[in-house]
Write a structure and sequence with these properties.
Blueprint lengths: L2 E6 L4 H13 L4 E6 L15 E4 L13 H19 L6 E5 L9 H7 L3 E4 L3 H4 L3 H13 L2 E4 L2 H11 L6 E3 L5 H8 L4 H8 L5 E5 L9 H10 L8 E6 L6 H17 L3 E4 L5 H10 L2 E4 L8 H8 L3 E5 L15 E3 L5 H10 L8 H8 L3 H12 L5
Parallel strand pairs: 1-2, 1-4, 2-3, 4-5, 5-6, 6-7, 8-9, 8-11, 9-10, 11-12, 12-13
Helix pairs in contact: 1-15, 2-3, 7-11, 7-12, 8-11, 9-10
Length: 383
C-alpha cells in the first residue's frame, strides 16, 4: 500500500476531483491531506482520505502585515511539517497542489517526510504572481524531485521562470469529468437550450468563473459597441459560480448592474452547478468567449470544442497542442478587436473547427484517461 500526502488547497474542487479519482482508480492508496489553511470544517475530499492535517497557526496576528505576514505564515507552515515528522510520519510521495510562498522554508521539512517531493502548479500560481514571489519560490522549485506540468508550452514557461531542469519535469495533467460526460452525451444544442428555457435564443457564454481576470466587463463593453450587428435573439450566459468571497460578490453585483443598463438579455449562474448542468451550459452555447488574462491549460476550452461550440480565444492565450493542425477557434489579439471577430464568427461559424485528430486527442483530456497516467507515475514509488 502506497502512502501519499497531498498538500495545499485541499478545499478546492480541483483537489476534490483529483483525490476522488485517485482513490477510485486505486483503492489501495493511503492518502493523507495537509491544508495551507486552518479551518474547523473538513474538506469534502476527506471522504477519500485517511487523515487530515491543517496549518498550525501560532503567529496569525502578523499574517496581515505585508512581508512579515508572508514570513510568519511560512514559519508556521514549516513548524506544521516538522510536527508531522516528529510523529514519525513517512510517505512514499508528497504532492503539493498550488505552489504558494508558505513553502519557502519547507523543502527540508518535506524531505523528512518523503524522498519524493512532487510539485503540481496549476496555472495562476505561476502566471499571476509577482516577480518577487517567483524569485523567492525558485529554490523550492529547484530542490523538488519532480514537477508535474500538463503541456509543452507551460513546461517551457515554468522552466524559464524557475530555472528548473528537464529531468525534473513529468508530463501529467488534471482531467475533466465534463469531457468524459460530453463524449457520452447525445443531447443536442436545441435540447440543451430547451432544458434551460432558452430554446429560441442565440447563446453567447462569457468566461467560466467569477474571477475578475476573466475580463467580463471588458468583453461586455465590446459587445455593447457592436450590439446593432448582433442577433436580435441574443442571450448572454455568465458562469460565475466560483470562487466565493465578499469581494467577488460585490464584483458580480457590479456586472449585473452593468448588464441591466445595457438591456442585454442574460443569466448569471452563481450557485453550484452539478455535472449535468455544466454539460447543458457547454452544449447550449453557440459561441464561447475566452479572454482571461492568463492561462496554463484550460480544460474548459476542450469541453466547448468537443461540444461543437464556436470559440473566440484571446490571441495572448497560447495552446500549441490545439493549433498543430489548424486554428480550431477564432482569435482576437486585443479586447478592442473582439467586436469585429465576433461578427465574423457569427457569419462564418464553420471557418474554425477542430480537426478529427484534435478531437481524438482532446478525448484523452478526461479524468478516465488522465488518472491512469497519475496512477502509473505514482506506482514507481513503492513502500
Amino acid at each position: 500500500m502506497r502512502k501519499i500526502l497531498i498538500v495545499g488547497g485541499v478545499y478546492d474542487k480541483h483537489a476534490y476531483r483529483f483525490i476522488s479519482h485517485l482513490k477510485k482508480e486505486d483503492n489501495s492508496l493511503n492518502i493523507d491531506i495537509l491544508s495551507y489553511e486552518q479551518k474547523e470544517e473538513q474538506p469534502d475530499c476527506i471522504t477519500y482520505c485517511n487523515d487530515a492535517f491543517h496549518l498550525q497557526e501560532s503567529m496569525q496576528k502578523f499574517y496581515k502585515i505585508k512581508y512579515l505576514g508572508l514570513i510568519t505564515r511560512a514559519i508556521d507552515f514549516k513548524r506544521t511539517l516538522e510536527n508531522l515528522a516528529s510523529q514519525h510520519k513517512k510517505y512514499d510521495a508528497i504532492l503539493i497542489l498550488w505552489i504558494n510562498p508558505q513553502n519557502i522554508f519547507a523543502i527540508n521539512s518535506y524531505k523528512k517526510l518523503s524522498n519524493n517531493i512532487i510539485l503540481v502548479p496549476l496555472g495562476s500560481d505561476v502566471l499571476r504572481i509577482s516577480k518577487l514571489t517567483r524569485f523567492i519560490l525558485r529554490p523550492f522549485y529547484q530542490k523538488a524531485d519532480y514537477i508535474a506540468l500538463p503541456s509543452a508550452g507551460f513546461q517551457q514557461t515554468v522552466k524559464q521562470l524557475f530555472h528548473i531542469k528537464d529531468t525534473q519535469i513529468v508530463t501529467l495533467d488534471f482531467g475533466s469529468d465534463q469531457i468524459d460526460t460530453i463524449l457520452n452525451s447525445k443531447i443536442s444544442r436545441l435540447e440543451a437550450k430547451q432544458e434551460l428555457g432558452i430554446a429560441e435564443k442565440y447563446v453567447i457564454t462569457i468566461g467560466y468563473n467569477a474571477v475578475k481576470a476573466q475580463n467580463h466587463l471588458l468583453i461586455l463593453k465590446q459587445l455593447a459597441r457592436v450590439r446593432e450587428q448582433l442577433p436580435e435573439n441574443l442571450f448572454l450566459i455568465l458562469p460565475m459560480t466560483y470562487p466565493k468571497s465578499p469581494e467577488l460578490e460585490e464584483y458580480i453585483k457590479y456586472v449585473k448592474t452593468y448588464l441591466n443598463n445595457t438591456g442585454f438579455k442574460y443569466r448569471i449562474f452563481e450557485d453550484y452547478l452539478d455535472e449535468e448542468q455544466l454539460i447543458l451550459l457547454r452544449k447550449c452555447s453557440d459561441i464561447f468567449i475566452h479572454a482571461q488574462t492568463t492561462d496554463a491549460n484550460c480544460a474548459t476550452i476542450f469541453e466547448y470544442l468537443l461540444s461543437d461550440c464556436t470559440i473566440l480565444n484571446g490571441g495572448w492565450l497560447h495552446y500549441p497542442e490545439l493549433e498543430k493542425d489548424n486554428m480550431p477557434y477564432f482569435t482576437f489579439n486585443s479586447i478592442k478587436d473582439l467586436g469585429s471577430c465576433l461578427i465574423e464568427a457569427i457569419k462564418n461559424p464553420e471557418q474554425h473547427k477542430p480537426s478529427l485528430r484534435l478531437i481524438s486527442d482532446m478525448a484523452q483530456k478526461g479524468w478516465n484517461y488522465q488518472i491512469r497516467l497519475w496512477i502509473a507515475f505514482l506506482s514507481h514509488f513503492n513502500d
